[in-house]
Automatic annotation (TrEMBL):
<keyword id="KW-0460">Magnesium</keyword>
<feature type="binding site">
    <location>
        <position position="51"/>
    </location>
    <ligand>
        <name>NADP(+)</name>
    </ligand>
</feature>
<dbReference type="Pfam" id="PF01450">
    <property type="entry name" value="KARI_C"/>
</dbReference>
<comment type="function">
    <text>Involved in the biosynthesis of branched-chain amino acids (BCAA). Catalyzes an alkyl-migration followed by a ketol-acid reduction of (S)-2-acetolactate (S2AL) to yield (R)-2,3-dihydroxy-isovalerate. In the isomerase reaction, S2AL is rearranged via a Mg-dependent methyl migration to produce 3-hydroxy-3-methyl-2-ketobutyrate (HMKB). In the reductase reaction, this 2-ketoacid undergoes a metal-dependent reduction by NADPH to yield (R)-2,3-dihydroxy-isovalerate.</text>
</comment>
<protein>
    <recommendedName>
        <fullName>Ketol-acid reductoisomerase (NADP(+))</fullName>
        <ecNumber>1.1.1.86</ecNumber>
    </recommendedName>
</protein>
<keyword id="KW-0028">Amino-acid biosynthesis</keyword>
<keyword id="KW-0521">NADP</keyword>
<feature type="binding site">
    <location>
        <position position="134"/>
    </location>
    <ligand>
        <name>NADP(+)</name>
    </ligand>
</feature>
<dbReference type="InterPro" id="IPR008927">
    <property type="entry name" value="6-PGluconate_DH-like_C_sf"/>
</dbReference>
<keyword id="KW-0100">Branched-chain amino acid biosynthesis</keyword>
<comment type="similarity">
    <text>Belongs to the ketol-acid reductoisomerase family.</text>
</comment>
<feature type="binding site">
    <location>
        <position position="191"/>
    </location>
    <ligand>
        <name>Mg(2+) 2</name>
    </ligand>
</feature>
<feature type="domain" description="KARI N-terminal Rossmann">
    <location>
        <begin position="2"/>
        <end position="182"/>
    </location>
</feature>
<comment type="pathway">
    <text>Amino-acid biosynthesis; L-isoleucine biosynthesis; L-isoleucine from 2-oxobutanoate: step 2/4.</text>
</comment>
<feature type="binding site">
    <location>
        <position position="252"/>
    </location>
    <ligand>
        <name>substrate</name>
    </ligand>
</feature>
<dbReference type="InterPro" id="IPR000506">
    <property type="entry name" value="KARI_C"/>
</dbReference>
<keyword id="KW-0560">Oxidoreductase</keyword>
Length: 339
């Protein structure tokens, strides 16, 4: 079983007298900066000069500096910019301003694990990775709750990296939900696997193929959208609340019987497992990371082409129309989705 920590195990006082620089003010950045500030921490946000977020962060009552100034100012520097630009920003603006004994923090392990960032030996290197979108990190904190986090320590130069990590997790509210101890390697590999095989790659491909199969057989696209895409969330909500058991309780026995007889026809057990193992192996061997790094160095042509192709897919076109009449007010902000 993994080591779990909760609020009672965390001492926010370990951040007393420490200046915390949050680099980036996107999904995670705004949440960490505001939650830490309201927890009584000394926070500033590091942004590019001219960033549109500069005014937003100031309006929220935060002090803002350039990335280089914030890194210099901070004793704790949390990297909350896009993973694919972190190495460049680290090299140019953060590394020259890190001092011995500082803590360099991450919310995802990609750059450390795949050695895109190699920090000096005299700083702590640790991760607090919330297991949820940044906007949820913020909204749950405001409501007195918190998104669970992963804690990992890659370098413990001061011997206090765990204390800093737990205090930070408490400061953003994560310790209310629980902090699980792991490693950069495990966090990176499981996060990439989850989003590729199941959450994003798997689920979206499954919905798309289901939609196409119905439409190609002559059924209305609206019907296909409701069946194969819209209902997905309703099923997932049941599973999140009470496991597969609650889902199966709530669906009809006909649906449950169909689940058992057809699930493994659609996803043949041995073949799907073998494919998933191959995806995992590419992640573990760095093959995926190499491709993603190269994609970013060559103008993102594949990503951009795929994104445009998906936008034109009939499930997206018909879905956009149908959703106009299904705004219940509690739908997630589209820019909150992330894994
Ligand atoms: P984001 O895309 O929402 O925000 C990134 C921010 O960085 C933006 O404000 C952007 O303007 C800024 N930025 C981009 N390039 C910059 C540069 N060159 N210099 C300065 N600022 C720059 O990112 P995010 O989703 O919050 O992700 C941040 C980190 O958190 C990543 O490591 C990610 O893997 C991790 N994470 C994200 C989530 C999530 O739900 N979004 C969950 C867990 C972990
Ligand atoms: Mg510093
Ligand atoms: Mg049905
Ligand atoms: Mg049932
Ligand atoms: Mg994830
Ligand atoms: Mg991810």
């Amino acid at each position: 079983m993994a080591n779990m920590y909760y609020e009672k195990d965390c001492d926010l006082g370990k951040l007393d007298g420490k200046k915390i620089a949050i680099i980036g003010y996107g999904s995670q950045g705004h949440a960490h900066a505001l939650n830490l500030k309201e927890s009584g921490c000394d926070v500033c946000v590091g942004l590019r000069s001219g960033s549109k977020n500069w005014a937003a962060a100031e309006e929220a009552g935060l002090q803002v500096k350039t990335v280089a100034e914030a890194a210099k100012w901070g004793d704790v520097v949390m990297m909350l910019i896009n993973d694919e630009v972190q190495a460049k920003v680290y090299k140019e603006d953060v590394a020259p301003n890190l001092e011995s004994g500082n803590a360099l923090m991450f919310a995802h392990g990609f750059n450390i694990h795949f050695k895109q960032i190699v920090p000096p030996a005299d700083v702590d290197v640790l991760m607090i990775a919330p297991k949820g979108p940044g906007h949820t990190v913020r909204s749950l904190y405001v409501g007195g709750k918190g998104v669970p986090c992963l804690l990992a320590v890659e370098q413990n130069a001061t011997g206090k990296a765990v204390d800093i990590g737990l205090a930070y997790a408490a400061g953003i509210g994560g310790a209310r939900g629980g902090v699980m101890e792991t490693t950069f390697q495990d966090e990176t590999e499981t996060d990439l696997f989850g989003e590729q095989a199941v959450l994003c790659g798997g689920v979206i491909e499954l919905m798309k193929l289901g939609f196409e199969t119905l439409v190609e057989a002559g059924y209305a696209p609206e019907n296909a959208y409701f069946e194969c895409i819209h209902e997905m969330k309703l099923i997932i909500d049941l599973i999140n609340k009470g496991g597969i058991a609650m889902c199966n309780y709530s669906i009809s026995d006909t649906a449950e019987y169909g689940e058992y007889v057809s699930g493994t026809r659609v996803l043949p057990y041995e073949q799907t497992k073998a494919n998933m193992r191959a995806v995992l192996k590419d992640i573990q061997d760095g093959v995926f990371a190499g491709k993603w790094i190269a994609e970013n160095q060559t103008g993102r042509t594949f990503l951009n082409a795929k994104r445009a192709q998906m936008a034109r897919h009939p499930m997206e076109v018909v879905g956009a129309e149908l959703r106009k009449n299904m705004l219940w007010g509690d739908d997630a902000d589209p820019d909150t989705a992330s894994t």
